[in-house]
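discrete fold record:
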Amino acid sequence: MLDTLSSTVFLTAMSVWLGGVVFFSFFTAPVIFERLPRNQAADLISVIFPRYYNLGYVCGTLMIISGFYPVWLEPTGKMAWLSWGLAFLATALSAYAGKVVMPRVRRHRQTAASSAGTAEHPRNLSAYNRSHQLSVTLNSTVLILLITQALIYGYRVRFIVTGEG
């Protein structure tokens, strides 16, 4: 019973989070930046980001908690540990991106905008570009970790069902 609950929670959290990242990254953000002027698009994305990162925190926490059960059942199982570790890493990266990097991006964006036409603008714009690139890199890394997680989950289910692997 507990293994079914654990697996269901883990799979649901992973699916919701992965779907959210894919939908935001490949559908929502591109359409917003395509349809709105750049400043308005950036403002709208800034409103969405707290909810986007909260989704990652909640789903990641559920994955960490529910993913620990297979580790506890089979402490020598490498795939269970790998799965749990990836969930932890994706959650930590998402938390860092949301709590540290995004406020920095927002601050650098405001500073760059307010310094337009001044000697400080190139330096401020460069700081914004670096922090934004870090945000994109972290988001891409979380996406790769979640896809890897889905592949591992599929492998583990196949192994449990067929004994092959």
